[in-house]
Amino acid sequence: MLICTHCGRKYPAEFLRCPICNEPLQLPYFEGKIKKGNKVWKRFADFYPFTLLLKNSLGEGDTPLLYLPKLSQQLKINIYAKNETQNPTWSFKDRGTFVAMQYVLNISRRVGTVSTGNMGASVAAYAAHLGVKSYILVSKEIPEEKLAPIGIYGSEILRVMGDYGELYYKSIEVGKEKGIYFINSDNPFRVEGYKSIAYELAEKIDGDYVIIPTSSGGLFRGIHKGYVELKRSDLIEDIPELICAQAAGCSPIYNAFSQGKERIERVEHPNTIAHAIRNPYPPSGDAVLRILKEGNHCEIAEDHEILEAQKELAKDGLFVQPASAVSLAVVKKLVAQEKIEKGSKVILVLTGAGLKYIPPIRINIRDCSINDLSRCFE
Ligand SMILES: Cc1ncc(COP(=O)(O)O)c(C=O)c1O
Ligand SMILES: [Zn+2]
């Protein structure tokens, strides 16, 4: 059973959005106890309405939480990184794909998604693993180098001309007609996968702030749902403040939040280096706004700040893509504004790996002759 995040009406599992208010649906809040097990899916089995079969897993989840000493010292806060780049296709999307695929296997042998890169690779990989045919719909602007990491898994890639925001809705419509189940960005079962990030964080740290790079809003909703379930189960005392981090060049949620609006508005000319979070009309935008109103916050960062943050994370040994580096860029702003107090425990969700998109990275190389090699060292 699914419940509308806005009006609370109930629908069967095959629905994807509320037909009355067109808002996203979600599974009910689950309560339970933590069990023993080396996999988050086993430890938190009480919080899922169906058995998560580990034979379908590619090893997603249970990612490291790292303390970043240099940045912590520099900003006078305690910064931790939840390193989601260590998932099987190098982004957090794998958690959602794993859980959603358990549902797909019961209803269809064909699956699809609309993707800027990460989700396409993730769905293609799990579909290959499980012997399901996959269709990945990408926008015409997708950089060429993002296609190989999707195509390698043997998925069918369709490059679609037209508005990317609209493609989300269109794919669901056509998917119904053709018997292809679309596990798009904020699919209810995908969100159930993302909530496992909150579970793993709560097992390790009583954080003050969790910074979440946000595009469609699926990840933000998932982490929030996870924390709410832990609180309702008396497993945590307080939910950390959740910070929605967006790129200034495409910030529909921030725009509505900062103007006190109830609904997001489409961004007409999205333009940011953080391609993975460039959704001009996020399908869970209004749902995220409702969560923000419960005492959470939203902030943006410019492209130059994002690229600077990407370099700073690399100084701590972490190579993330711009869409992930936005988390640190936003923290620096919030510390400067004294919105984040000194000494706070701040968790960056590092959503995707840097190797996925390398063109913006500038490096210095010195040429050397083997005969003069010793002269090349200063
Ligand atoms: C690297 C990265 N970070 C963050 C996000 C944002 O996730 P969501 O669309 O669930 O808000 C995405 C989404 O594609 C992503 O690829
Ligand atoms: Zn509704």
TrEMBL record:
InterPro entries tied to this protein: Ser/Thr_Dehydratase, Thr_synthase-like, TrpB-like_PALP, TrpB-like_PALP_sf
Highest classification ranks of the organism: Archaea, Methanobacteriati, Thermoplasmatota, DHVE2 group, Candidatus Aciduliprofundum
Keywords: Lyase, Pyridoxal phosphate
Superkingdom, taxonomy of origin: Archaea
Organism in which the protein naturally occurs: Candidatus Aciduliprofundum boonei
Family to which the UniProt record says this protein belongs: Belongs to the threonine synthase family.
EC code(s) of this entry: 4.2.3.1
Listed SUPFAM superfamilies: Tryptophan synthase beta subunit-like PLP-dependent enzymes
Residues annotated as domain Tryptophan synthase beta chain-like PALP: 57-352
Molecular function terms from GO: L-serine ammonia-lyase activity; threonine deaminase activity; threonine synthase activity
Named cofactor requirement(s): pyridoxal 5'-phosphate
NCBIfam families attached to this UniProt entry: thrC (TIGR00260)
Pfam families in alphabetical order: PALP (PF00291)
Modification type N6-(pyridoxal phosphate)lysine: residues: K93
Example of a GO biological process term: L-serine catabolic process
Protein's UniProt name: Threonine synthase
